[in-house]
Structure formats: structure tokens, C-alpha cells
Amino acid sequence: MELFDTHAHYNDEKFDIDRDNVIQNIYESGVTKLVNAGYSLESSKKAIEIASAYDWMYVICGISPNDISDTKKQIDADLCNLEELIKFENKTNKIVGIGEIGLDYYWQKDNKQMQQYAFIKQIELANSLNLPIVIHTREAVSDTIKILKEEEVLKKGIFHCCPLNKELIKDAVKLGFYISFAGPVTFKNAKGANDAVDAVPLDRILIETDSPYLSPEPYRGKRNDSTNVHLVAEKIAEIKGITKEEIADITYKNAMRIFEIEN
Prior knowledge:
This protein has 263 residues and is an alpha/beta fold. Helix content is 41%, strand content 17%. It is built from nine helices and eight strands. Helix 2 (41-51) links the parallel strand 2 (31-37) and strand 3 (57-61). Helix 2 packs parallel to helix 3, helix 3 packs parallel to helix 4 and helix 8 crosses helix 9. The protein is globular, with a radius of gyration of 17 Å.
């Protein structure tokens, strides 16, 4: 059984003390593909640097809504630098998406217009580079869907660590997006988990860890890593009424398809 963790942050400082050992253990556990996710210019650079040492690790580069600058002028400058980074580094096709990008009205309530501007500009960047987008949305469902309906997204993409919101999922699937579930789907107090998973067709479902965050049960509260992605697969399999091996195979193939990875 091979697993694909579609979203993790091995560029995070929480892995500074033992990163190489953790990554080696991940591969040996059966996670044979993963995506190392940027959320700022510097973290995207670090994600690329780390992934360059592993032929089975890929990268997404982007500026998250929690890391954008305060003015349109500076956002434009940051995205120009991001584009230059991607074009320079992507000679080996290791960069497979623009992300994580989107809207977050939980942590950032006072800069909604700037968030929306940065989101739209990074959709445009993804279109120009012929890459899918990876979306972060928190307490911003309505505006996220509105933008996706108004802005053409050529390669579509993924709702990463998708909120357990059945209506959001229905809209996202209808728009052509994939849905990725992480540790919260396993939480004992997760509301709407079954309905959310049921709303996703098998050909659009993905799994992730969002490491080092959001550890699934029974490791909730501890540092997460990709060896735990099988627990997410197990929970989804239980809800869907199929085996963990089937979910592993389905989500692996789905991830290879959306990120256009050939082997």
C-alpha cells in the first residue's frame, strides 16, 4: 500500500531538530509521495531546498492569506519575486502548484480586501504558469466560492484541509476542485465529518496531514508528520464503506492526476 500526503510543511521550524530522520521514516512507512507546502516567499524557498534532496517529494509555492503584505504595491512585488523563484527553480518540474493561497477571516479580520486581491493575483499567476492552486479557506467560505466563480482557474486545484462544510464541498466539486481531508476528520468531536466525506466523489478525494499541525486521533495535540496520513485514509475508508487499501490507491491516483506527476 502506497500513500500520498498532499500537504505538509517540512519547512516548518518544528522539524529543525530532526527533519532528515523524520522524512526518512515517512518514506519507509509507505508514504511514497508528498507535497511540501510553502506559505510565504521564504518558506517556499525552503520547501524547494528540502524537496531537492528527495526525488519523491514535490513542492507548492505561494503566499497564504496570513502572510501577505499590507499594500497592493508590496503584494505585487512579492508575487513578482515568487514568479521569478518558480520559473528559476522549476526546471525539474518539482513545483506542482501555487499554494497555499486563499482567505482566512479567522486570524485576519481587518485586511479582507488585501486577502482577496492577493488570492486573485495568485490565481492569475497559476494560470500563467499552467499550475493548479491549493486553497486555504477559514471562516471565508462565501467569499472564497464567489471569487472562484468569478475568476477563471484553468487547472482547478484543491481545497486543502477542507472545512467539514457540506455546502462548501458541493460548490467546490461542482466547480471542478478536489477536496483534501486532514486530521480533523478523525476528531471525536468533529461535526459533519460523515456528511462532508460522503459529499465528495471518490475521483475528487485526497488525504493530507498538514504536518506539523492537526495530528489525527489518537495523536491529537502532538507534532504531526506524514506517517499519520494512514489514519486519515482509515477514517475516510470507514465512512465510505470501503477498505483503507482502496482509499490509499484512489487518493494516490487522484493526487498524481491533479498535480500531473507522471511516475
